[in-house]
Specification:
By secondary structure, the protein is α+β, with helices and mostly antiparallel strands. The protein folds into two domains: 9-169, no CATH class; 187-319. 39% of the residues lie in helices and 24% in strands. Strand 8 (239-248) and strand 9 form a beta hairpin. Helix 2 crosses helix 4 (132-144) and helix 7 (186-213) crosses helix 10 (303-319). It is elongated. Mean pLDDT is 80; it is low at 1-8.
Amino acid sequence: MEIAGYPHYENVCSNILKYYLDPHNETHGLGRIMLRAFLKAIDRRDINLSGRNTITVRREVTTAKGRIDLVIESNKWIIAIENKVRHFLHNDLKEYNDFLIDRYPGKEIINVVLSVRKEAGILAGQFRNLTYAAFISNIEVELSNSNVDVTSEYFIYFKQFLRTMKNLSQPMEMSKSEIDFLIQKRTEIDSLQKLEARFWEYIYHRANAVKNEVSINASIESWIYDGYDVGFTYRAGAHVYKLECFFEKTGISIVICVEPNKIDTDALNELLYFKNNNIENYKVDKNNERIVLADSMDFFTNDTEIVAKLNDILAQYKASESEV
């Protein structure tokens, strides 16, 4: 998601929270729903969000000893949120509280640790604990009483976020028989893990060798993704095509991918390769790219044969360049 900003799990969650907690952000379409649900979840229904109360939401406010994940400021109060998804709570909460009192004199300070699991014991710095499960429960009540546009892309992203956090909040359980099995088979499991690691290292070296043998020119870029996907990006004028060769346990597949926003079907049909392979018979993958299966091979297919197939397709790309 574009609003997430960073790949780190807690940072992603905090960025998403900032986006949807901001009542003045008109793009998400939720208005004050998130903030109202948050206040109800911490039993602060007395706080009035109506009127001309200006509210700002900031990320990573720096203190002397750390950074507070989220700070929500109004004319009369401050809400500090320490967000805990995967990490243990080791922050100096008392220092955070002292910092907030000093920085925002005269305003009520409300400190919250928002966590997937319930934090044990009394928290320092007048922080209270709110679990995602309780927060989401209040959000769902607020949503049920609203007229939010459920077809909005940002609402769909929001629902996906809620579903993810609910799943993370579920208790993790293993039966005694499962644990006993792992203990009894630990030597075999360790050997299999080492064997699989060797397998993927073999795949990477094989994929890299194939990539290096394929003939390319200045209009074609080659790359490897995740160690098993050999790719070639071909640019012809304004059009961009991708040829990929996947090395997987089930076999080897060669596919042609085209991003719909970069090219149209008419332009695709100008390519000799696509003229010879019905363009209508494509599938759409999770990234919404058109994919045409060019070939599938047994895992033990000779690399020379794979290189020849890739060269054949790329040669047809080059031959069609003057037509595009």
